[in-house]
Design goal:
Blueprint lengths: L5 E6 L8 H9 L3 H9 L3 E5 L2 E4 L12 E6 L1 H4 L7 E5 L3 E6 L16 H9 L4 E2 L8 E7 L2 H12 L4 E9 L8 E4 L10 E11 L2 E10 L6 H8 L22 E9 L6 E5 L2 H4 L9
Parallel strand pairs: 8-13
Antiparallel strand pairs: 1-4, 2-3, 2-4, 5-6, 6-8, 7-8, 9-12, 9-13, 10-11, 11-12, 13-14
Length: about 290
């Protein structure tokens, strides 16, 4: 059988092999090695009653009545994700640099290309996701390591008590250096606010580009990218929004700082990196 993307959802019967891996080998014609690889990378699930969990070991047992699910995408499974780096560790939560290309969370088809799984595997600690970054965006992400810390941090994000700061290179000049403006256009029918400060404006080959400081007050899907494109100044290298903003080096947007009150001690906490180390260099003259 050729290795193409496929989805298998199989209810386990009394006469089926007890091991999920054996059942999937028999059903798909894929090699045992391919199934073991898919399992280790989070592409196999067992649904039991109302619960559903990833199973990573080839020895995992599926009982009669369970539903074994395989979401197989050989192209995704072959990806070698970039490595995250620890920025700050407070035991019950930590802050990591998520490089561009690393996912904020996994999908049915696997989680080996996600920050949470990478941290779990490398540290042996459980991870609870409390916010997200776009795949194309590099920057700091905060992860919780126990349910109580996750609940407290999620409440801070929900209440707008977490400040997230970004830098971006955008097409054109939203204003002169030092000028501040606010974009508050709704996103998907929901209120959204993005504050901008122009840091610098310069010619880049045949076009003008600006570096802007961004403070995000709400967390709508692609909010920064949509707001900037909406005012005629799309992020350089954005593959989805804007025109005339191509860049071979990738999306010129980085989440370089996060500020909050520690949910454990109440102390002010700031985790920040140098934005110039995170932004890819724009390809001059790209169209």
């Amino acid at each position: 059988m050729s290795e193409q993307r496929l989805v298998i959802k199989r209810k386990v019967g009394d006469g089926d092999p007890p091991r999920a891996a054996d059942l999937l080998v028999a059903d798909t014609g894929l090699s045992r090695r391919a199934i073991k690889d898919a399992m280790s990378k989070g592409a196999v699930w067992i649904r039991r009653g109302r619960g559903r969990r990833r199973v990573r070991r080839a020895t995992a047992i599926a009982r009669p009545g369970d539903r074994v699910e395989l979401f197989y995408d050989p192209a995704l499974l072959a990806v070698e994700p970039p490595a995250a780096a620890l920025v700050l560790d407070r035991r019950r939560f930590s802050v990591w640099l998520k490089p561009a290309g690393l996912l904020a969370q996994g999908s049915d088809f696997g989680d080996h290309c996600s920050l949470p799984r990478q941290v779990e595997r490398d540290t042996g600690r459980r991870v609870h996701l409390v916010h997200r970054l776009d795949r194309e965006t590099a920057g700091v992400m905060l992860l919780a390591h126990d349910p109580e810390a996750a609940a407290r941090l999620s409440a801070l994000f929900r209440d707008g008590a977490v400040v997230k700061r970004y830098r971006a290179l955008v097409l054109g000049a939203p204003g002169s250096p030092g000028q501040v403006l606010t974009v508050d256009r709704p996103v998907d029918g929901r209120t959204a606010r993005t504050d901008l400060r122009v840091v610098a404006v310069a010619s880049a080959g045949s076009r003008v580009e600006s570096e802007v400081e961004i403070t995000l007050h709400t967390g709508r899907t692609h909010q920064i990218r949509r707001h900037l494109s909406g005012i005629g100044h799309p992020v350089i290298g954005d593959p989805r929004y804007g025109r005339g903003n191509k860049n071979r080096q990738g999306l010129c947007l980085a989440a370089y700082a996060i500020e909050l009150r520690c949910p454990v001690t109440g102390d002010a906490l700031r985790a920040a990196l140098d934005p110039s180390d995170l932004l890819p260099r724009a390809h001059r003259g790209g169209s």
